């Protein structure tokens, strides 16, 4: 494994470092200390031509102007209704950043933090202490995010946290993929191990109801072409995918989702022990400048493994409680095939 540390740029007067791992197959990942952002995932196609399959950006200003692209998300991925939740009978209110809703950990979420970056045993390690006064969540929390790359071309991102008071912890990586050399994902297919998705209110908070995907445009149970899916969604419900899939009970070595590009032969399979995957194919990326070019509709697809959002406001959504003094760890794995 080759490792490289370099200055990415400066943001708010602080150096932003870029860390890169390259294995012996020529597969490489990079991550930067601003927002623990996954800044590149490069691997070959069936003809050996390497490309970065993420919607990456070349500078911190662009990243922060267009938040969340490939960034670490926390303390809680997704939306919390009215920024309000209870833990053991006590009600908490956290800062809102989308009307009255708290999205992706609020205005001071993980993606806004500058992390302390380093290499440890050929892994990229980001660490940060976040006080309750920083992000309004209960508990002062120590967080560690580790990016690892194996010799069989699997990326593992591990999120660990410990808090001095009961709080919430439901992290994810907001990775946007495009496995092809085209400027949209129309030729790619997606498979998701989910029989249900969440019904959402107009503000995209969950109603609590889970809906069967069968016989709908939401059904990704067997490698659906993404362009067909987007067209069917628009025809049937009037919008593209911005959906929360309820992952079926599964063994941790069974992928929860697989994105494939038949033209290039590239494939990414995602593994997670948790019960949700958010799928988002933005219609409007006008004005966003990516490493691969100026943003256009459906240039990438966001796949965000996490626990169901707005927990603990809904029975049956699981738990994202981080009890005081207890360390919780979650991993997301991305296996590259080509
Ligand atoms: C998630 C949400 C989307 C959007 C993106 C960030 O995918 O589901 O509604 O907020 O994050 O742009």
Keywords:
6-stranded antiparallel β-sheet, 3 helices, mainly beta, 338 residues, 9-stranded antiparallel β-sheet, binds alpha-D-galactopyranose
Protein architecture, described:
The mean pLDDT is 98. The longest helix is centred in the C-terminal third of the chain and has 12 residues, at 226-237. The protein has 338 residues and is mainly β. It is globular. It has helices at residues 60-65, 132-135, 226-237; strands at residues 2-11, 14-22, 28-32, 37-44, 50-52, 72-73, 79-80, 84-87, 90-93, 102-103, 116-120, 123-130, 141-149, 154-163, 167-168, 172-173, 176-177, 189-192, 196-200, 206-212, 224-225, 242-246, 257-261, 266-272, 276-280, 289-290, 293-294, 301-306, 321-322, 328-337. The two termini are 19 Å apart. The protein is built from three helices and 30 strands. 7% of the residues lie in helices and 44% in strands. A nine-stranded antiparallel sheet has the order 11-12-13-14-30-24-23-18-21. Strands 17-28-25-22-19-20 form a six-stranded antiparallel sheet, with no helix packed on it. The chain has a five-stranded antiparallel sheet with strand order 1-2-3-4-5, with no helix packed on it. Alpha-D-galactopyranose is lined by residues 68, 103, 204, 242, 278, 280, 302, 304. The site of alpha-D-galactopyranose has 8 residues, from strand 25 and strand 28.
């Amino acid at each position: 494994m080759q490792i490289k540390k370099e200055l990415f740029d400066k943001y708010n007067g602080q150096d932003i470092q870029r860390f890169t791992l390259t294995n012996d197959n020529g597969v490489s990942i990079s991550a930067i200390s601003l927002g623990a952002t996954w800044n590149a995932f490069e691997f070959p196609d069936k003809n050996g031509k390497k490309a970065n399959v993420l919607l990456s950006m070349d500078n911190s200003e662009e990243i922060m102007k267009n938040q969340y692209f490939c960034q670490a998300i926390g303390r809680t991925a997704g939306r919390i209704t009215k920024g309000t939740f209870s833990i053991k009978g006590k009600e908490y209110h956290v800062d809102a950043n989308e009307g009255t809703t708290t999205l992706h950990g609020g205005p001071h979420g993980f993606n806004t933090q500058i992390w302390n970056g380093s290499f440890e045993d050929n892994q990229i390690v980001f660490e940060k202490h976040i006080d309750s006064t920083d992000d309004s969540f209960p508990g002062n929390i120590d967080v560690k995010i580790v990016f690892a790359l194996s010799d069989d071309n699997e990326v593992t991102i591990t999120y660990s946290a410990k808090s001095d008071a009961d709080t919430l912890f439901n992290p994810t990586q907001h990775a946007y993929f495009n496995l092809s050399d085209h400027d949209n994902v129309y030729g790619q297919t997606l498979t998701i191990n989910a029989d249900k998705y969440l019904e959402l209110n107009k503000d995209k908070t969950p109603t609590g109801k889970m809906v069967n995907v069968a016989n709908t445009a939401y059904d990704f149970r067997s490698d659906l072409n993404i362009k067909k899916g987007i067209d069917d969604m628009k025809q049937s419900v009037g919008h593209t995918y911005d959906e929360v899939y309820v992952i079926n009970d599964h063994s941790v070595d069974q992928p929860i989702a697989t994105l494939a590009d038949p033209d290039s032969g590239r494939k990414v399979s995602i593994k997670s022990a948790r019960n949700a995957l958010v799928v988002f194919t933005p219609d409007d990326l006008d004005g966003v400048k990516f490493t691969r070019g100026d943003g256009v509709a459906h240039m990438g697809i966001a796949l965000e493994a996490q626990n169901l959002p707005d927990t603990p406001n809904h029975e049956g959504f699981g738990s994202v409680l981080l009890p005081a003094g207890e360390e919780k760890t979650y991993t997301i794995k991305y296996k590259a095939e080509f």
